[in-house]
Predict the 3D structure of the following.
Amino acid sequence: MKILGRIYIVLAILLGVVAALQFIRWSSSSGTITPAYSLSFLPATVFFIAHIISRNSKRKIVHVVAIPFCLLALVFWGWVTLGVEMFISTTEVTNVRRYDKILNDYWSFNSELVSHFPRPIPSDANNVRFSFRPKFLQGGAHIQLRYATSPEIIADVYTRFSERKTKSFTGGDTNDHVNMKEGMPTTFFYTSSSGNDEFPDDYEIMIFDKILKKENWNHGQSHGVAISKKKNEVVYWAEAW
């Protein structure tokens, strides 16, 4: 009985530490704290209760009941972990304050893909909008930053990136661009203020990738900028699928 009681408390401590680390990671990844995250402490709580009860009782029936409850708590924990991981992996992040961290951490495996993004966001940028969604299962990942600035800066940005582009499109989205003659995958207007995923006709969508044949598009990536001289806006984007 004493051995089981010790096992309960050791597991309670270990599970508590794991739950705390899990809670911190989930909160950091999502940028928010939800009640579901606290469920990660359930197994540690159940094992601690089992320890208290077994310490104060010598009856075998206590362990007959406690062990299944502990196992059920572990199974429930597994389902909660799976659900939260799926939620975090499929939720779009729009909080601009998380821009630097996401750019540095998540995209570190391919720095070239986001090398054209500003670091940090320019101090003269206004009407800043941000969109990020990580890759999950068959779904692709994207990161996009949009802001307005002065006509002079936009003109300079336009000239600089025009020298780098391999192809450009006027308005539309990646579906339109793919289906054009000698088309290429680009992106959607994830940072649109209207909810319309298509770029208006005043945007020139520049792509920096090599011109590829359609058979090479699976599990690929694309990156570039979209610039509107009319609105004095620039949209930095990168996609991986």
User: Anything to note?
Assistant: The chain is about 40% helix and 20% strand. Strands lie at 126-133, 141-148, 167-172, 199-207, 221-228, 233-240. The chain has a mean pLDDT of 82.
